Amino acid sequence: MKQLTFILLLFSALLHWSCGVVNTVAVNATTNIVDYGLGAIFEESDLDFAEKAIPGNLTLLEALYRAKGKDDDHLAFLLTEGYTGYTLGFVEDVDVERAKVLYTRARNYGLTSLKKNKQFAQAFDQDQAAFRKSLDQFGKDDVPMIFWTANAWGNLINISISDPSVLGDLPKVNAMMEFVLKNDETYFYGSAHLYFAAILATTPKNLGGKPDSARYHFEKCFEIGKNKFVLPHLYMAKSYCVQMQDRALFEKLLTTIEETPLDDLPEQRLVNAIAKRKAKKLAERIDELFF
């Protein structure tokens, strides 16, 4: 009887172990498929199709993330990047409150992963000097996660600008973007430059805005992206040109966006298509923005 009990226990343990192995293999295989799927989405030029397809991919990623015990940094990265891009492209302009929820979700996935670094986790709620110093524990390989986490967080702050409590987080986002500039300024077509360009251009001179520095950062984006990645052109038009009341440059930038073929940068057709749609809406406000 004791021998039979032992055999049953052993069989149960082996069955549990084998199911766990099969589950892990299935999750890993599905993750690879979703990776390719997200790459295909970034190459998509049909905005309606992409808007409908992305949420399903994100839901699947969240299921995979939970299946792996919420401990997979790659899945956390894909969720951070995916939610940030989806919210910027399809939510922010039509539903600000929903955008806040989604940007927060993206930021939290990224922070959960980054806080596995004990020094970063310990310094997170300390003063700015400690937080900035904790970023020294990371290296170039951490640039993607730090960038997308900071991007989500920065966008959240931008659409919550009327909430003073949110502005207190801005120095942390700045420190993270400075880390990206220091370790790989070319990442995602120089988008850390774009972040600082938009801030410096949007802030009035009397409040610390630096239009010359903003223009430098915008031009670095153009250089790194070889004028094929047109999101910086959009942000320069809506921030720098409006602040400087440079209507001629505004029109030139929007024309560049309109005339740049999506196939010039096939791996970012979606982002460029989004920039084109936003540029058209911005052009409709030209007489309101320039006076």
Describe this structure in words.
The chain has 291 residues and is mainly α. It is built from 15 helices and no strands. Helix 3 runs antiparallel to helix 4, helix 7 (143-158) packs parallel to helix 10 (187-202) and helix 10 packs antiparallel against helix 11. The longest helix is centred in the N-terminal third of the chain and has 41 residues, at 2-42. The N and C termini lie far apart (93 Å).
CATH class: Mainly Alpha
Count of discrete domains: 1
Strand composition percent: under 5%
Mean pLDDT: 88
Q: CATH superfamily, please?
A: TRAP transporter T-component
- The CATH architecture can be named as Alpha Horseshoe
Which secondary-structure class do the elements indicate? mainly alpha
Q: Can you give me a brief rundown of this structure?
A:
With 291 residues, the protein is mainly α. The chain contains 15 helices and no strands. Helix 4 runs antiparallel to helix 7.
Main features:
mainly alpha; 291 residues; Serine Threonine Protein Phosphatase 5, Tetratricopeptide repeat
Topology:
Blueprint: H1 2-42, H2 47-67, H3 73-91, H4 96-114, H5 118-123, H6 128-134, H7 143-158, H8 164-167, H9 170-184, H10 187-202, H11 211-224, H12 231-244, H13 247-259, H14 269-283, H15 286-289
